[in-house]
Design goal:
With 74 residues, the protein is an all-alpha fold. Helices cover 84% and strands 0% of the residues. The mean pLDDT is 94.
Length: 74
């Protein structure tokens, strides 16, 4: 994945509501993040696959980040 693709994904994660990221099951979270990325720019099949695999590998980190943001707001 290119650096710009990584920045785009992590920007979406950081600006998304923490509760949403925490409440979706794994498959739904991957699909929701992909949908958000697709609204920002068109993704070809290879890019969508790369995002899907990368997001799956980072789900624990995505949930940890969302959880830590939730804890900061308590």
């Amino acid at each position: 994945m290119s650096p710009s693709m990584l920045r785009q994904l992590w920007s979406v994660v950081e600006t998304s509501q923490s509760q949403l990221l925490l409440n979706l099951d794994d498959g739904s979270l991957v699909q929701w993040l992909l949908k958000q990325l697709k609204t920002q720019r068109s993704l070809d099949h290879d890019e969508a696959n790369a995002y899907t695999h990368y997001i799956h590998s980072k789900l624990p980190l995505i949930r940890d980040l969302a959880g830590s943001r939730t804890m900061l707001h308590l």
